[in-house]
Amino acid sequence: MKFSIIIPIYNVEKYLSACLNSVLSQAMDLYEIICINDGSTDGSLAVLEDYAKKYPQQIKVLSQENAGLSATRNNAVALAQGDYLLFLDSDDMFVENALQKLVSTVEVENPDIVAFNSELYYEANGKTEPNTSFNHTEKAVFASGMDFFNAFVALRRWGPSAVCFYAFRRDLFVKNNLKFEVGLLHEDELFMPQVLFFAQKTCVLPENLYLYRIHNQSITRAQKDKNYTDKLYIAGVLFDFLSVKKSRNLFVDRVIFNLSLAGIHGLMDSKPGRKKINHNARKILVNLRAYTVKTQPEQILRRIAICCVCLMRVCGLEHPPNCFCAVVQLNLPQWLSQEQNEQLKLPRGAKKRLKSSKL
Fold first, then answer.
1. Are strands 93-94 and 202-214 parallel, antiparallel or unpaired?
2. What are the structural domains of the chain?
3. Dihedral sign, Cα of residue 160, residue 227, residue 5, residue 133
4. Which residues contact 187 (CB under 8 A, 6 or more apart)?
5. DSSP 181
6. Fewer beta carbons within 10 angstroms: which end of the chain, N or C?
């Protein structure tokens, strides 16, 4: 069996049939479908059981008390028997002949990971468009997962972060005991750099195989503040993990830096988040925002880095400060010319806080 397709399910009765039909339309001898009902309170389980009766050879169904996306994926991986794992969100779909296209690359290259393209499907108007934030333009083969990571970040300034757009060799999970961290939003942003660290040969298949549905009921849209605090946590864990593994570089630091900044900006924009950051930290960020309006994006980087460090040193967020150690150690001169570095000045009060604070 070539693929184990993992579908976590929670209150998606409206979308589940379309999702399952998109898999069942693929060549039958290529896959198994592992569906885990994560404590749904709507009719999702009934839909699942009906499909399992019709397709007992293809569909495995397991029900559990609600445990969240990461725990559900971990449980499904433990049941998988395929050579490769694919993760399909229960409100999304595979395109026609997706697995047939994927298996050709797998059989020729025998990689640890295959990256492929996706399309965005807008539920409100039924239109689709390429997912340009994550799509690839050329076929490529990388000697390691980190080589792929570096190339990805070099083009976009953010990291690969959606496991649904990849096929993973199952042994990669088993041998390295890889699991999704339970309780996080944005769990993929932590998992993808970790799995890529352990991966060897990584291939890019620049074809649209996945249809990503855009609607207003996703988990990440519903829990705004936790989005941002989890980004800060993930930045810290990645900094620690890749520092210990001696795999930090300019591209890794860019990803850590952007996660840190996104977390801070998000918390500053929410009332509960602002309560976690004291007056001095808020003033630094206000000063930063005033500055960014008048400058070019590449000139902002150093000032933002310093602001992030100062913010973490004076705020009361209950997250590891290591995520902001990273911005201190960024190789910023590579991003800016010597003249730009000389012209940039610290925001008012930042130098004093820098000297008087501790990490």
1. antiparallel
2. 3-219 (3.90.550.10), 224-356 (no CATH)
3. negative
4. 69, 70, 180, 181
5. P
6. C
pLDDT of residue 223: 58
Spans of the chain, pLDDT less than 70: 1, 157, 217-225, 257, 260-261, 264-359
Where do we find the tokens 């592992």?
A: 34
- Cross-strand bridge partners of residue 47: none
Identify the residue whose tokens are 């010597």.
338
pTM of the model: 0.79
C-alpha 123/C-alpha 110 separation (Å) is 36
Residue 242: closest CA among 263, 227, 257: 257
154 within 8 A of 251, measured Cβ to Cβ? yes
CB atoms within 10 A of CB 341: 13
Task: Find the largest Cα–Cα distance for the chain.
Answer: 69
Q: Of the candidates 13, 163, 173, 218, which has an alpha carbon nearest to the alpha carbon of residue 79?
A: 173
Residue-by-residue DSSP string for 290-341 = HHHTTS-HHHHHHHHHHHHHHHHHHS---S-THHHHHHHT--GGGTS-HHHH
**In this structure, which amino acid lies at residue 218?**
S
The pair of structure tokens assigned to 121 is 């499907």
CA distance 52 to 193: 35
C-beta separation of 36 from 75 below 8 A: yes
Residue 39 contacts residue 66 (beta carbons within 8 Å): yes
User: What CA–CA distance (Å, rounded) separates 207 from 88?
Assistant: 17
Helices (H) and strands (E) in the chain, counts: 16, 10
pLDDT of residue 24: 97
262 secondary structure, DSSP code: H
Q: Is the Cβ–Cβ distance between 81 and 1 less than 8 Å? A: yes
Calpha distance 71→43 (Å, rounded): 21
d(CA 192, CA 131): 18
Q: Helix, strand or coil for residue 90?
A: coil
